[in-house]
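User: Okay, second chain of the day. Same drill as before: sequence in, structure tokens out.
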Amino acid sequence: MGHVVNAGVLDLPASAWHRSRELFAERNDRMLTVRGISYLVGETPVDLVRRDLTAIRDDLHCTAVMSIGADVDQLIAVAGQALELGLDVYIRPNATELRPPELLAHLTRTAASAEQLRLRHPGKVTLLVGSEFSHTSRGIVPGPRSYLRLRLILRAHTLLRRRINRRLDALLAKAAEAARDVFHGPLTYAAAGWETVDWSRFDLAGVSLYRSGTDHTSYERRVRALVSESAKPVVITEFGCGAFTGADVRGPGSFHIVNWYASPPRIMDAHPRDEDIQARYLAELIDLYDQTDVHGAFVFTFSMPDFAYHDDPALDLDRAGFGIVTAKADHSAQWRPKAAFHAVAHRYGGR
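Assistant: Same drill. Structure tokens below.
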């Protein structure tokens, strides 16, 4: 504590801090090897990135950050700053809407730059070949946009499963080969929960695994099965929810409470802000990962400026986003840690 991040950023009323401590005081003896959070590259002005990464290291007690973005130069620049601060980095290109040849070319450029970082910081850099190719890459399922392909998959993934897995496997084989040609560190992929992946090509098994609904036992069984059936260490590449009543049940669908067609976009119906919901959700899952020998986990995510905070509840998109700090629409220097920020910090650093 005591660095620039705390000047007007980490201030929280004492009552809120003590309530957060009470809610998330229970702990256990296990600890994730990789304690991480994702960082969306390009969403924050360059001169403020180091401030955020310093908070991730010192206040969240993370050991790693996942740099996510489409611009290779920005992606590597953020990863480089994180490495300079002593964090491990997971570099995840997020080039959506590309056909396989373009995607592989983009991956090769990213991998070559990641290799230069790895040579300067041995043992600190992991590369992801991408994420959820079944909908982010064109050609695996029909549809002109990732969002539409995702909707199709969620409605009919059982019928599409064979097609998805066959085409995904072919693309991942090419992606792993392209990356390994130029990058010589650990390699993984952020799989969607419905994707079946041959992890023998990779060094880590990476799965984005959001909990939704009320059947928490089923989710726990899924996590335990992933760990017990995998020959590779398991990393949860995404998990999180919004900060409103019922967000823990919606999980990855938290953002659906926003009417994006309104001008400006606004919250539909009544969804009262409840930061403790998000905090409890993250704390429970981190504890579960500890207890089930998950190798590492990355909270999704630090900040989402596209889901900006507003004093008017109808325009307060922040509660529908997954950021653990509030973001201002004007990308201003100020942000406020939510209850989830303190819950994650307590889990990651309190043992």
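Strands lie at 34-40, 64-69, 88-93, 125-131, 187-191, 205-208, 234-238, 258-259, 266-267, 296-299.

User: Thanks, on to the next one.
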